[in-house]
Design goal:
The chain is mainly alpha-helical. The chain has 3 helices and 2 strands, in the order ααβαβ. The chain has 2 domains: 36 residues; 63 residues, Ribosomal Protein L9, domain 1 (3-Layer(aba) Sandwich), CATH 3.40.5.90. Strands 1-2 form a two-stranded antiparallel sheet. The longest helix is centred in the N-terminal third of the chain and has 29 residues. It starts with 24 loop residues before the first helix and ends with a strand. Bound molecules: FE2/S2 (inorganic) cluster.
């Protein structure tokens, strides 16, 4: 059998009457619930803070009319003309119309959004 490449560590003196780390049943009944509560508490707190700090990640609208409780656009069909291209990625500088910003958004995020195109049927 090969010997280890380093010398063994010297043994440390232990206090009289002890032979290492021992935990009684009574101590375990306290330690285990406290440890479980600490783990669960840490998980819940970290989840709470990660949710609140990443809240804007879940939002689609990052900049448009943020003072309004709801962003709504309405158009009459007669005013659309032969074709209209509407943004669905919420990144257009000409919102609600598409300006092609979805291409950059898709490249950066791996998303696949594109515009809504409304056009009259070809006669
Ligand atoms: S810019 Fe948003 S869909 Fe084209």
């Amino acid at each position: 059998m090969a010997s280890p490449p380093f010398p063994p560590l010297p043994t440390l003196p232990s206090p009289a009457g002890t032979s290492g780390f021992r935990v009684s049943k009574e101590q375990l009944t306290t330690i285990v619930p406290v440890a479980v509560a600490a783990v669960v508490g840490t998980y819940l707190v970290s989840r709470y803070f990660s949710r609140s700090s990443s809240c804007s990640k879940g939002k689609v609208n990052l900049t448009l009319n943020k003072d309004s409780p709801k962003v709504v656009h309405s158009f009459d069909m007669e005013d659309i003309g032969s074709k209209a291209v509407y943004c669905r990625c919420w990144r257009s500088k000409k919102f609600p119309y598409c300006d092609g910003s979805h291409t950059k958004h898709n490249e950066e995020t791996g998303d696949n959004v594109g515009p809504l195109i409304i056009k009259k049927k070809d006669a």
